[in-house]
Amino acid sequence: MSKPADIGGKRLISLSPNNWAQWLTQLPQVRVTQMLDSDLQWVSRENDILLKVASPETGDFLLLNELQLRYTSKLPRRMRAYSGLVEEKYELPVYPVLVNILPHVANPQIPNCYQSNFQGIRAYQDYKVINLWEVEAEIVFEQNLRSLLPFVPILKGGGEKTVVREALRELRADEDLNELEPLLSFFASFVLKLPVVQQIMRWDMAVLRESPWYQQILQEGIQEGRQEGRQEGELQLVLRLLNCRFGALDESLQQQIRRLSVEQLETLAEELLEFSTVQDLETWLEQN
After folding, report:
1. What is the DSSP code string of 112-141?
2. What's the rounded Cα separation, in Å, for the pair 126 and 119?
3. What single string gives the DSSP state of each residue in 219-279?
4. What fold does the segment set 9-134 form as a domain?
5. Where are the strands (E) in 39-167, listed by range?
6. What distance in Å separates the CA atoms of residue 141 and residue 118, rounded to the nearest whole number?
7. What's residue 43's pLDDT?
8. Per-residue DSSP letter, 91
9. What is the pTM of this model?
10. Segments of the chain scoring below 50 in pLDDT
């Protein structure tokens, strides 16, 4: 059996950790000395990455990375809790950074601190916020930020086919980066038509389903229960892919898709890549 592709946050940052740390902190002499265990008793997720770093200016400190698909209102409290827990565990100062991958339409104002006041007792935690859609795509190539190559399509100025192709060339030129191509194609589908994405790169749903980014999309559904949330997330993904491929769908077709089970939606997400026309979709729905 082939080894599953690793396209999570830890894997991405490990590709060029020093460049990543220098970019986050804007300290040109900072170096990563160790990738630490980020699992804590109450806080553990695939996209929490904890680095022990050092620079001549600061000495040793912890670089806490939270890679989030989209900002949620729970994150300020989480950043405060995580910063305190890792500082206690490793007894080093903490530099926390929240990296948001996609914009949150409903809440574009993203705070860069946590604060509370209960009965005159105040709590406060600063953290740095980086929104990838505000980052210029060209810096990925200029600063050799290999960790950001899969995200190039959603960076500022990264949605052009020529820029996406450049990112693809860099991925394919390095054996260590080859398995990240499905992740690049996934984010390219947010800005390019799906047939265009399929023409220029590999789309692999099996790989994407194993990634934390895909799991976060599933969790964006209505969380009335685990199954309902998973179904809503899968539904939104399928509808977005179909919209990328065929444009706006007829309301009756959308209603048929909404009645599908999670298993049917997962199958449709894979098979719709082979559809040439909306009639292919209609035939599939009739048969399933």
Report:
1. SEEEEEETTEEEEEE-EEEEGGGSBTHHHH
2. 21
3. TTS--SSHHHHHHHHHHHHHHHHHHHHHSSPPHHHHHHHHTS-HHHHHHHHHHGGG--SHH
4. Trna Endonuclease; Chain: A, domain 1 (3.40.1350)
5. 48-55, 59-70, 94-102, 113-118, 121-126, 128-131
6. 47
7. 54
8. -
9. 0.76
10. 1-6, 221-226
